[in-house]
Design brief:
Elements lengths: L21 E4 L1 H5 L8 H12 L3 E5 L8 H4 L7 E4 L4 E4 L5 E5 L4 H14 L4 E6 L2 E4 L17 H4 L8 E7 L5 H12 L4 E3 L6 E5 L5 H12 L6 E5 L5 H6 L2 E5 L4 H6 L2 E3 L6 H11 L3
Parallel strand pairs: 1-2, 1-11, 2-3, 11-12, 12-13
Antiparallel strand pairs: 3-4, 4-5, 6-7, 6-8, 8-10, 9-10
């Protein structure tokens, strides 16, 4: 069995089923294997955690419509935090949105104009509660037959398709971290900029919206403190959540910035690193 940690926990950080009330885990590159599946070992660990009274929250940059891979493993409360904290969805109630933290259209327009001026060649997509809509030159990462295709300024005009939950910006030439730094410099006052893709694809949410801030709200509603939360992640969009949780694990395959910001490590997503820690928590292992 793969060891969960590369660096030993201290008595203060060691978690057991008695001291852990909630597990928050990212999906891609963290809980999911590289083929976007959930291993049998991970399925069993998630179910065992819920049976032991530990709530599990999937906290992802994915939109709600991309959650089928884990929909059957949302136990107990039925909730998942999607779109980097912009929405909370109840999968026990047909995927109903129970919380929406939108990016206002005016702020999104300001971001588009500033980023387009600073990084010519950038293209944009608008993620709404109804689905994604994108510019003609935006890469078709996953086609949507119901998507509108038009300039971003037009896509952001009006709210007939529901609130904007995330603005996406892609650049075909800039390095991912370079594009992120540039966009934050020219438009950071209008929203929260992050990334989770290996390409130069930025994910932009409303001011104050992140995985961490929405997870904090969900925990407060349950009377759960940060010290009772164990979190897992691998990319820059997980940094705030990992910093907020009382115990945070970076995956062995994590982005260098995530590895630098965390102390605890677990095995790679391809080796069931999340499941390994959950098993240790449930069995009270060091």
């Amino acid at each position: 069995m793969t060891s969960a940690t590369e660096q030993p926990e201290t008595p203060a950080t060691r978690r057991t089923a008695a001291t852990t009330r909630l597990i928050a885990t990212d999906l891609d590159g963290t809980l999911l294997r590289d083929d976007r599946t959930v291993s049998d070992r991970t399925v069993a660990a998630l179910a065992a955690a819920e049976e032991a009274g530990i709530e599990v929250f999937f906290v992802t940059g994915r939109p709600a419509r991309w959650m089928d891979v884990v929909r059957d493993h949302v136990h107990g409360h039925g909730l998942a935090i999607c779109a980097n904290g912009a929405v909370v969805v109840d999968f026990h109630d047909g995927g109903r949105y129970v919380k929406v933290r939108p990016l206002e259209s005016g702020a999104a327009l300001a971001i588009v104009r500033a980023v387009r001026a600073a990084a010519p060649g950038a293209s944009f997509a608008v993620e709404r509660t109804s689905g994604i809509h994108y510019e003609p030159h935006y890469p078709p990462f996953q086609t949507d037959p119901y998507a509108s295709i038009a300039p971003a300024e037009e896509l952001l005009n009006g709210d007939g398709h529901g609130p904007v939950v995330k603005l996406l910006a892609f650049h075909p030439e800039l390095a991912p971290d370079e594009f992120l730094e540039l966009a934050r410099a020219v438009a950071g006052e209008h929203g929260v900029f992050t990334r989770s893709s290996p390409t130069a694809l930025l994910e932009i949410s409303g001011p104050g919206v992140s995985k961490a801030s929405t997870l904090a709200q969900c925990c407060a509603e349950r009377g759960i403190s940060p010290e009772e939360v164990v979190a897992f992640g691998d990319m820059p969009n997980d940094l705030e959540m990992l910093g907020w949780a009382g115990t945070a694990y970076a995956m062995a395959n994590a982005h260098p910035e995530v590895l630098a910001a965390t102390t605890l490590r677990t095995a790679a997503n391809t080796e069931d690193g999340v499941a390994a820690v959950i098993e240790q928590i449930l069995h009270g292992l060091p």
